[in-house]
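Troubleshooting log. The previous structure file for this entry was overwritten by mistake, so regenerating from the original sequence record. Sequence copied from the archived sheet and checked twice against the printout by T.R.
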Amino acid sequence: MTVSRTTVRTRPFRFGVTVPIRTDLPTWRDRIRRFADSGYSTLLMPDFPQLQPSPGPTLAVAAALTELRVGTWVYASPLRPAWSTAWEAHSLSVLTEGRFEMGVGTGRPGIEDELRDLGMPVVPPSERLTQVRETVTMLRELDGPALYTPVVMAVHGPKAQALAADIADTVTFALMPGEARADVQRRVRDFHAIRDVELSQHVAVIGNAVAPFMASPDTDPAALRAADSLEILPDDRVAAAEEIQRRREELGFSYFVFGAEVSDSLAPVVAKLAGT
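Regenerated output below.
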């Protein structure tokens, strides 16, 4: 079943790329500049304490290298006080002159173990959603009438979706391993019954290549293909372009996010589809 075109606006394609630092800094900076010439709209930084530099200063450097937008993909709310996250996000909006997007969510699978390792309290999902709401509320207060920082929210369950419908500008649906396309389709349809916003798609696998920090290293591309999973795109450019267009038509996804290490093969597709 396709999303109703009478209730959902077809948005132009845009593409983001996660840019964790996995090389020496000169190589990372060259990669950032290359993405600026490839049709990508947004450079994104994951929130992995101790494995990566903090998103804030990293994105400030990335924003100084190009004119692209920058964003977090995504802040894990249990790791950060709401006021601190809001302050950093507002500061990035100011320093980039409005080119920052705050991605935020309640935490990736396994966040509980990470919190214990860091000596931080493990809070239930309901409190994590409260933290997300508080973060966005404080961000709006800091921005004031002269600035508006877009909010991208990662969601899965109905409570997170309800909150996103209230506070988010863009929504990305967190997928479970091997989750069937039909199940995601139902969630998208239910969400659109509440509100029509930009929908984003986190694509962790291109062909047989799994993007670091976007999926578990033991992710099986063959199993994802067999399940017709939305976590994967073919590395054939024609087939990938057709599938991206299909996902907008059938599901309403218009903003696609890839990992830096696997994105080069789709650069011509991005250049062709961006903005259309």
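Residues 125-143 form the longest helix (19 residues). Archived copy saved in two places this time.
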